[in-house]
Amino acid sequence: MPPKGKGGDAKGAKGGKAAAKGAGEEASDSKGGKQSKGGTAVKVRHILCEKQSKALEALEKLQGGMKFNEVAAAYSEDKARQGGDLGWMTRGSMVGPFQDAAFALPTSSIASPVYTDPPVKTKFGYHIIMVEGKK
User: Fold this and answer.
1) Topology of the domain comprising 8-24+36-134
2) Which residues contact 46 (CB under 8 A, 6 or more apart)?
């Protein structure tokens, strides 16, 4: 696998379900300029796996219909007890590729998540990210 650049993963962050749902949401700029760009803060959940193979296994569970918080509890190596909930995070408080992906995703819910596919690689490992709110 070739090495990824600083923002390399953010471009591919909206595959699968995200591409289907995300395209229409980002194009609708009628709610205000800030919302389409992601605002200044996002309420984010993630599944963090040190190994790519484990992250891809978690991704398969999500694609199979398992709820995001349940997959996070079973697979995530960070915040697993809280279903991957990181709470509200502002621009500048996240590592580059994670932040780029988080602000690019549309808002979704645990029951019907829109998440990064493929997982986003950072210095911490591989993240599957979903956004529950923006402000």
Assistant:
1) Chitinase A; domain 3 (3.10.50)
2) 72, 76, 78, 79, 84, 86, 98, 127, 128, 129, 130
